[in-house]
Amino acid sequence: MSLSAPLTQHIVRRPQRIALLQHIAEQGSITRAAKSAGMSYKAAWDAIDELNNLAATPLVERSVGGRGGGGAKLSEEGQRVLRLYQRLQALQAQILEAAEDASDLDLLSRLMMRTSARNQLHGRISAIQAQGRNDRVELALAGDLRIEAQITHDSTQRLELAIGTQVVALIKAGWLELLTVDERAAPGENLLCAEVQELLEDPQGSTEVRLVLGNGQTLCAFAEPAWLASQCIGVGSALHVSFSPANVLLGTPV
Fold first, then answer.
1. DSSP at 29
2. Pairing status of strand 119-131 against strand 166-171
3. Spatial separation of the C-alpha atoms in residues 10 and 12, rounded to whole Å
4. For the Mop domain, which residue ranges apply (predicted)?
5. Among 13, 91, 97, 149, fewest CB within 10 Å belongs to which?
6. Is the pTM of this model over 0.85?
């Protein structure tokens, strides 16, 4: 089974995050792996969540009783990706030697952009419906989950989107609204069922809520501590996640 195009691009562009897999395999601990990779514990889990979301199946699995706390291990797919990364390291050395000038590498660096969006979900386009100047684009995620994005028709053409195109949906954490399981989203809004995986205090006073979807992909949202307390929300609680299709940005591999 081949890797998805978004994950392949990520391997090339974000080597530190892929190298984190090697540290996890060697140490079996998120805490120690993050330290070895020069990352904070939180940054390490952000990287793992992103990698798991871009892969067809999760690359890293939580394990109980890991050495040093924060236990984790690579899945079979994670081990396969790690072997691929190690081969890419050798190829990268050859490419650097072949560059004619340092400006060549600067140009490539500018062309390969990063994104500020915390949530990145890999999927395929399953439908495109024209709505005036905009298009309503349906994405099929892993596990038969579906979301919709609203983009301009010009964007659809510029990205050369079609049924079956692989894309990455980008959603900022602040654009997600958390609802109880008894609440429903407003008409036309996306709605996903999720389980609270972790609650982290945020310096701004809100709480960062890490959520896992039924397909194993993860989301990050923010919520007021008072609301979480009033609804007795904790790790393992079920929630609904709502967001507007207009707040779903789409990206394709270059």
1. B
2. antiparallel
3. 5
4. 114-180
5. 97
6. no
Question: Hey, which bits of the chain come out as E strands?
Answer: 60-62, 72-74, 119-131, 134-141, 146-152, 166-171, 177-179, 190-201, 207-213, 218-223, 238-243, 249-251
Segments making up each domain of the chain, as ranges: 5-111, 119-169+247-251, 173-243
Count H helices and E strands in the chain, helices first.
8, 12
Q: Which CATH fold topology does 173-243 show?
A: OB fold (Dihydrolipoamide Acetyltransferase, E2P) (2.40.50)
Contact of 211 with 113, CB cutoff 8 Å? no
Of the ranges 113-117, 131-135, 181-185, 219-223, which one carries the lowest mean pLDDT score?
113-117
The yes-or-no answer to whether 119-169+247-251 and 173-243 have a common fold is: yes
Phi, then psi, of 141 in degrees rounded to 5? -95, 175
Tell me the CATH number for domain 5-111.
Answer: 1.10.10.10
Per-residue tokens: 134 = 């905009």
CATH architecture of residue range(s) 119-169+247-251: Beta Barrel (2.40)
pLDDT of residue 239: 97
CB atoms < 10 A from the CB of 34, how many?
24
Closest by alpha carbon to 51, among 68, 69, 66, 33?
33
Closest CA to 81 of 26, 169, 141, 2: 2
